[in-house]
Structure to design on (218 residues):
């Protein structure tokens, strides 16, 4: 399967569903499994060894998500309500790439995932130099591509940004129609603009079905 596989570990099924929806909405990511306990997380990793990243709650019914970091064998984010500084230090010592304190907005998790995608790309080369290491670490610290904000937007991205002069919010299909590109192309450029901090993305839930991604200016 293509895309970065993400395991969601949270004992609140509503929170797990929200995180899964954000992951599934981002190009280049997919949810491999959801788990509500440490035992379920271990079983999910055995069933889905291709998982790249786990998003872990701290307080689980059978222990602490922080204790899972070292044994899962994949990259990990902590996303929990624990605010004890010792917990943060323990998570980072164990190898967590970032520590998100609940509650946080949809856009914040999307931003951190965009940073993770750049972190992975920066370190995917067979040979890396100091600049690649610095770029990867900066992406994880800031949750976005470090040099992207300073780059000149592409013509398509400039055309997309121009649409927000007349619209407070837009979804990808609307952007595609307004700009005259395919929905897939619109989603790719919208994800790049979110990563660069030029747009914000949030999930809006209807009566049924998948949540839709809405974009707005920061």
């Amino acid at each position: 399967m293509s895309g970065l596989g993400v395991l969601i570990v949270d004992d609140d099924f509503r929170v797990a569903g929200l995180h899964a929806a954000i992951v599934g909405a981002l190009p280049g990511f997919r949810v491999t499994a959801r788990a509500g306990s440490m035992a379920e997380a271990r079983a999910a990793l055995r069933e889905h060894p291709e998982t790249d990243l786990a998003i872990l709650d701290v307080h689980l019914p059978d222990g602490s998500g922080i204790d899972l970091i070292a044994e899962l064998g994949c990259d990990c984010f902590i996303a929990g309500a624990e605010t004890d500084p010792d917990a943060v230090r323990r998570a980072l010592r164990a190898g967590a790439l970032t520590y998100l304190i609940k509650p946080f907005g949809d856009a914040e998790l999307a931003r951190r995932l965009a940073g993770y995608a750049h972190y992975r790309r920066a370190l995917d080369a067979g040979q890396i130099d100091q600049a690649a290491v610095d770029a990867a670490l900066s992406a994880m610290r800031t949750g976005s591509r470090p040099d992207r904000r300073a780059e000149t937007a592409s013509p398509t991205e400039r055309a997309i940004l121009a649409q927000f002069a007349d619209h407070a919010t837009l979804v990808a299909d609307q952007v595609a129609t307004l700009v005259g590109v395919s929905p897939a192309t619109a989603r790719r450029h919208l994800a790049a603009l979110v990563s660069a901090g030029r747009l914000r993305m949030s999930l809006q839930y209807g009566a049924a079905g998948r949540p839709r991604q809405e974009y707005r200016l920061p």
Q: What stands out?
A: The chain is about 45% helix and 20% strand. Residues 146-151 have pLDDT under 50 and may be disordered. The chain has two domains: 4-116, 155-216.
